[in-house]
Amino acid sequence: MKNKYIKFILIVFICLSVVTLIYKNRNCCGSKENLEINKTEKSVSVLNENKPDIKLDEKKQNILAKNDKKTENKVITVYYFYANPRCYSCQMIEDYTRFSVESNFKSDYNGYKVVFKAIDVGEPSNKHYIQDYWLTSKSVVIQKFIDEKPLKWQNLDKVWQLLGSKDTFVNYVTSEIKNLADEK
Q1: In this structure, what DSSP letter does residue 40 have?
Q2: What residues contact 169, with CB distance under 8 A and at least 6 apart?
Q3: Domain identity same for 55 and 89
Q4: Is the bond into 85 cis (omega within 30 degrees of 0)?
Q5: Quick one: which of 105, 123, 172, 179 could link to 114 by a disulfide (CB 3.0–4.6 Å)?
Q6: Are residues 52 and 128 in the same domain?
Q7: pLDDT digits (tens, 9 = 90+) for 136-169
Q8: The domain spanning residue 139 has which CATH number?
Q9: Number of domain units in the chain
Q10: CA separation (Å) from 80 to 46, 64, 142?
């Protein structure tokens, strides 16, 4: 008789745990409404441009300025768009994407500077990104810019599927960035 009560209590406990888990994560990753929830975090630019403050003669400055123009005018921005609340998977996508950029694009690739930006689309000033990139969930989007003119962009929709393997995820993001930079 005691075993029946213990089994019943355990089954009720498991069911309540599952319902609680589903309830807490119901707004996590799936809907456009979720992208507009909490508006407390700010946009973050993860990679900062660190240029040494060195005085050069005018001739060297002109040469460096010409070289900088070639690389600074070509940028691939890797966006991670999020809103709150953020689940563990959402934070892993941001971490893996940032790692992909920071570890594989320390220097320019094919003339493109690659930068990572995490953007909270819950902020009123960032809501335009939802329509600009047709966002329906937390997303990784890459976009090519030349002379600050936006060109081709791509939503990396496989990031959710590849989340189980960091290496596969990083390889996917890295290869998609390289493919975009290699396109004419």
Answers
A1: -
A2: 96, 100, 159, 162, 163
A3: yes
A4: yes
A5: 105
A6: yes
A7: 899 999 999 999 999 999 999 999 999 999 999 9
A8: 3.40.30.10
A9: 2
A10: 11, 32, 9
Query: What is the token pair recorded at 107?
Result: 């220097």
Q: For 26-40, how does the pLDDT look when each residue is reduced to its tens digit (9 = 90+)?
A: 445 554 444 443 333
* Confidence at 90, pLDDT banded by 50, 70, 90: very high
Provide the pairing of β-strand 74-82 with 113-120: parallel
pLDDT for the residue 36:
41
pLDDT at residue 57 in the model: 55
| Residue 17 domain boundaries | 1-30
- Statement to judge: residues 11 and 46 lie in one domain: no
Q: Is 0.70 topped by the overall pTM? A: no
Beta strands in the chain (DSSP E): 44-45, 74-82, 113-120, 139-146, 149-155
Same domain, 3 and 53: no
Say if residue 11's pLDDT is above 90: no
Joined together, the tokens standing for residue 75 give 């940028």
Residue 93 and residue 3 in one domain: no
Residue 153 forms beta bridges with which residues?
143
User: Would you state the structure tokens that stand for residue 94, as one six-digit string?
Assistant: 């941001």
Whether 14 and 93 map to the same domain: the answer is no
